[in-house]
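<given_protein>
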Amino acid sequence: MSTLLPGRRRPRTPAPVPPTRLHARDLLAEALTGLLQRPGRSVLTMLGTVLGVWAFVAVLGLTSTATGQIGASFSLLEETTVTVDDAAPGGGRATSFPADADARLGRLNGVVAGGTWWPVPVRAPLISARPDVTAVGDQGADIGVYAASPGALRAMQPTLATGTLYNTFHQTRGERVCLLGLSAARLLGISRLDGSPAVFVDGVSYSVVGILADTERLPQTLLGMVIPTTTALREYGAPLDSPAQALIRTRPGAAQLVARQAPLALRPDRPDLLKATPPPDPHGLRDQVDTDLSGLFLALAVICLVVGAFGIANTTLVAVLERTSEIGLRRALGARPRHITAQFLTESTALGTLGGLIGTSLGVATVLGTAVVRDWTAVLQPAAVLPAPLAGTVTGLLAGLYPALRAGRVEPLAALRR
């Protein structure tokens, strides 16, 4: 037991040093200072997140907008199309449709246009643009021959590249005229009609009156030639492999009524010979298309975000290596490892958040700009737009986690020696 001499005081125990603290305001100030010290690098680091979030929002927005437009067009086309099939048994006979089918269909309320059509039963036809061709080559081997009445042509809603459609005059007289699909015309080398070109089918000439650039219905006619039904019946007989069919274009909302009335209007004596098919419900297929496209493009957007995350992680790690002496000085002045970790993690999170906000704005602007240019209705899902800045924040947080932890493990003495 020690004793104190007279006049001596007991030495005081030094007070413990309070642990250093890093307030949130100081943390944000330090992180902002670190970012502003190297503005060029900060911008380039943030660019990865900007591109990822921009792709995320733009791709999902454009997918929703495009599929909505496709769905609307698909629904309108399907809801205004009625087909009537020749359901009579047997073949090799005259079609069950009357000769004035176009006029009978046109008198139905709600019908815009309608008529009959079928693939012409001609086996391996020799089709060429010259009368002296004696063997089929690749030029006309894939060209089909179709018969269609003037009403069926109007129901197809064709777009003409040049020329005109044949009319009731050609139909009544059974004229040898034809329409060429754009692909068939290219195969035959016909692009202009000012020289009155002709197409020869097994040596029989047909004057080309028009070239179809596109059709809303019966797209198979674009790779073929179309002739009047009266001409087809006289030259090649009744349809064999594929029965005749009536194609009807209706006003929106009238398809179901027209489908019920068409067989009786065409054959009041035997409506059972004809079978009308109303438009199917397109919602299931449209929803499937929407789901498939959204899933595909969502995967691409996630890949973009992953690429942006690797960019932030790489740049943040390089910044840690370059700022080792600064980290050592901060540690020597009392900064704890968690303070260093929090500083670098805040910097990467701030870059991710700012990149997410900028990328979301660019994505929304891209969707709106595309919709305006294409005259579409922009569709932006809140589930894709609202979480997008948060996705940037999470990306920056996760990307900076490892570099921040590594910065916190830097020893002050080893860092100051560098």
